Structure formats: C-alpha cells, structure tokens
Amino acid sequence: MVTLADVARRANVSKMTVSRVINHPEQVTDELKKLVFAAMHELDYRPNVAAKALAKNRTQIVKFFILEEISTVEPYYMNLLLGISLALSRHQYSLQLVANNSFDLGVCDGYIITGMRKSDYEWISRIEKPVILFGENLYGYDFVDTNNKKGGMLSTRYALSLGYDKVVFVGIDLKEAFEYSRERGYIQVMQESLKEPEIVRVENHSHKSQEMLQKNWEKYPKNTAFVCASDRIAVGIERAIQEKGANIPDDYGIIGYDGIFLDQVVSPRLTTIRQDVAKLGEICGEMLLNKIEQKGKKQGFKLLDPMLVKRETTRRKGGSEKS
Amino acid sequence: MVTLADVARRANVSKMTVSRVINHPEQVTDELKKLVFAAMHELDYRPNVAAKALAKNRTQIVKFFILEEISTVEPYYMNLLLGISLALSRHQYSLQLVANNSFDLGVCDGYIITGMRKSDYEWISRIEKPVILFGENLYGYDFVDTNNKKGGMLSTRYALSLGYDKVVFVGIDLKEAFEYSRERGYIQVMQESLKEPEIVRVENHSHKSQEMLQKNWEKYPKNTAFVCASDRIAVGIERAIQEKGANIPDDYGIIGYDGIFLDQVVSPRLTTIRQDVAKLGEICGEMLLNKIEQKGKKQGFKLLDPMLVKRETTRRKGGSEKS
C-alpha cells in the first residue's frame, strides 16, 4: 500500500506539504499542487477521503436542490454551480445535483436549496441536516443572495440621472422576497426624487413583457426608462420598442437585472444590474461547510452587492437629447 | 449505532428492501424510497457509502471537466450536468465540477471531459483513470455525442424541401470533429440534390455571424436559407436580415443548431436542430460508471439522434411564396 510518505519522497517535499495539498489545497500554490498530484498519480496513491469521511461519520457530499423549472433559468444556475463546486472542492466535498421536481433527500451532510416558492418552506422546515438557501427569504433560514434592494436602487438612480422623464418598474409577477426587495429599492429612490412610483408586473418571460408593452404602448411616451426585474423581461421590452420603430436609448431606456448571458446576446446589448453568481455560489458552499463543521449552528445571511453595467440600452451620461 | 435492521423495522419493510433503496435506488418505486428515507432520517442512519468506497478502494466521485470558456456555452452545459448527475446519483456517485482552466486532476474514480480542442488531447492521453469524452473525436477516445452529421442532413434537407433556391451553411470556425460532421451532413444532402455546397465559417458568436452577413449581403439574394452550425450563429443571421428589413421566413430562412434556451428567446423563434443534452449527459454518466466497474475497459462511442424543431424562421411546408 502506497503511503503519504511515499508520495512525499517521490515529489521531494515534506509529508506536511503533501497533507496540506490534500486537506487544504487552497493554502498551496498551483505549482506545488501539480507536483504533488503528479507524484500521487505516478504511485496511484489514493488519499483516504473515504476513511476520513467514515471516521467523522460524514459522507463528504452536499446536495444542491434546484426547485425552479430549469428551462427558464439555465444560464444563471450554471454559474452558481461553478461557485458551489469551487468551494466544495477546496474541502474535499463533492456535489449531487437534484432538479426537476425530485425531492429525494438521499444521503449527504447538508443541502443548498434554491428556487423556493412559498409552498416549499413547509418541506424545507422538516429537513434535519444543515441547509443554506440561495435566495432571500422571510422565514429565518440562513441564506445568501445579492442585495436586491440595492440593485433596484442602482438602476433607478441611474435611469433618473440620465434625464428620462418617466421611470417605470417592470417586475416579476411573484410574491417573493427578492422581487419585493428590488421593488423596494425602486420605490425608495423614486420617492427620494419626489417622483411617483409606477410598477407593472408580468411573468418572467420575454414574450410576456413584450406583449404587455405592445398592449399598453400609449401609456409610455417618449423619454421613458424601463427598470426591469430581470434581463428576460428587459429583452421583451426591447423587442416591443424596436417593433414600434422607436429609438433605443434616445426615446426609451431599458435596464435589466442579472447580467448573465442574455444581456449580451441581444442587440443593442442591455444595460443591466450584474450579480456575481459564481461568487454567490462560492459563498453558499462556504457557509454550508461552516454550518456542517459547527454542527448546524445558525449562520444568518450574507448579501453581496450587485453592480451596474452600462451598455447600449441607456443614454450616455448627460442625456443624449440635450447633447 | 443505528443499523440497517433498525431502519427496516421503522419503515416496516425487509432489510433487503432498505439495502435496495440504498444501493439500487433505480430499481425501487418513489414511494418506497420516500418511506425508507423518512425512516433513515428519523433514526439519523447513514448508510456506509464511505465504508463501501473504502472497501472497494474507490472514492465514489467523478470529476467533470469543462475545458471550454464557460461564458460562451452556459445554457448548454447546465442540461448536460443535470443528466450526468442523474446517472451518478443512481449509483451513489457524486460529482466534482472543474472549469475555468483548472487542470487539477485531484482524487476520483474517473472523468467526464468536454469542450476539448486539439491541444487538449495530449494532456488527456496522460490520464490514468477511466475517461469518457462528451463530444466526438478522431483519436479513439470513448465518447458520447449527438449524431452531428445527421443533424446537418436534417436541416439541409428541410431547407431544400421548403423551396429555398440557395441553401448556405454557416459553420463554426473550428477544426473540430463535430463541426466537420455537421458540414459533412450538409454537403452530402446538397450533392444528393445536385446543388453546389456553399460554406462560410465564423467564430461562434452572434455578433460575428451578424457582421459576416452585413458585409456580404449582396451575395445572398432573396429565397436563401441559412443552415447554421449553432443557435448563436443563427441569432446573428436573424438580426442581420432584420436590419435589412427583409422578411423572415418568406425572403430568407434560418435553421439553427442546439435547441437550448437561445432558440426561444429570439423573435421570431428559431427553427433548429435540438440535441437532448440532458439525455446525453445521462449516457455519459452511465458509460463512465460502466467503464469504472469494468476496470477501464474500452466503451466505444454512442451517438444520439438529434431532432428537427420547426418554428418561425422557416416557411411552412410547400413554400409560402407559392401559397
């Protein structure tokens, strides 16, 4: 049987170093990792993850539940997964992905859950192992999310600063915390600017927001900006404006929300609020592993600040009408 | 210590049944699984995946490498991951996802690798554990893919059947097997129809194909159909045609390739060749687990047939010009 000492000898490093590469790869340079892994492969050495798991009465597995219909959200979750995987691999954890309405709790050390709707919380409350939710919630569960209110504030403030007369919020027709927070950000900035908030909500599909605007076109005169709760909604708004032959960004401004994939596929490209979803995933993973290590101790929540990305669906600063 | 017998007693089933739920969940009804998992959770029973792994000298972990830049392909890989996860979870395997140019082989029982370019094969050839590639290759590695040639044939044949005079293939500017196969399918059908193949290649970005068509607009008279090697390319072609104010699908037809997400976000929605990517992922997972079980025995390849999805960027059958 090949031992850790054999690997250390082959790689010409100390046993301590080999152990660190295995147990705390995040503390080690890539070069050193390469060297040690090469020696491990040459010798076919298998560090005893399984033995360790057994000793600790752990599985070293985390399950990630996506409760939302995957087809509507794909690009988003891929980035989240990457972040989660990164955090887990640092601690020799691996992942099981559960989607498409399977509620199979299976065997693992803890859960990351996302895409919850109100009706899911009853089920979640009965889970006995550590759980971290991705997405803000009002029920006291530990969670990670972007600062949705701040996102709403950022985009609204930007639209106003560009001189658009009317700034409308196009929200997602869901009674969920993240949506309320984005709206709250919008409302707060509008009120601070002594403007009246105007909110319309649609299903989170580009065809729905497109339809909404087609039907209500007269309500929105030139010099209106649409602050949207998702890039999907923003894409539909963009299409409806283009159909009418109106100019983006001079006649109408659009700001999306998410900043993953979709914003860059459309033309003109969307000004949007970007969430660093991979980073959020990483934080989810770290928080869950801490919670497991601390035997289920409450972790609270962590909000990451979103970022305004200025592109082609909003005027340049100063207001192009005057320039 | 809670035993399997305790779980059986609590769930009021035989020990055999509990064992089957744990080791062969795919052979068991969802109801039975629910019952047994509930008992396991109540008793806090942890089946000895770790012990089993240890006994077999295995990790029960599979690593999935995405070698391609993630930002360009996100929606696609999410579905693949779902399929892989499904196959792994059936056999109590879990997943580690490796992306963004990390080549950290780490510790696991085998690898699924995708997004390979020619320069990656040297590295892949040195991996000593079982490997399955997602994506056809010419180097003799076991792989899973859609039947790319058939996909090219399907779309070309459909474009011709709709009465478009000129059918052009807009390919991806990569010297890779999947691209060559799609082109081969196009060429074969064109030759069978005694038409001259006409191929143009661009980078796989909508803005690139859009630019290409803008620059070469006079080359493509009305009644041309563009058979594209990806939906990204098709989206750019659609935009360029719309800019010129030409009619889709009467003046120009467009057929994409992939059928994931992007095809439905644009307007008009793309006629496309759909790959069942989740199913492909499942097959990758199954093939790799077989290979691990069979101590690295060669598995060959498996091609899944793609499907033509008829939408709004192609005429209705019979050719609308004549109707």
UniProtKB/TrEMBL annotation, chains A, B:
Domain HTH lacI-type per the UniProt entry, residue ranges:
2-56
User: What PANTHER family would the database entry show?
Assistant: LACI-RELATED TRANSCRIPTIONAL REPRESSOR, TRANSCRIPTION REGULATOR, MEMBER OF GALR FAMILY
A single GO molecular function term of this UniProt record: transcription cis-regulatory region binding
User: Has UniProt tagged this entry with the keyword Glycoprotein?
Assistant: no
Keywords per UniProt: DNA-binding, Transcription, Transcription regulation
| The protein, known as | LacI family transcriptional regulator
For this protein, the record's Pfam families field holds: LacI, Peripla_BP_3
PROSITE patterns (UniProt xref)? HTH_LACI_1 (PS00356), HTH_LACI_2 (PS50932)
Respond yes or no to whether keyword Transcription regulation is given for this record.
Answer: yes
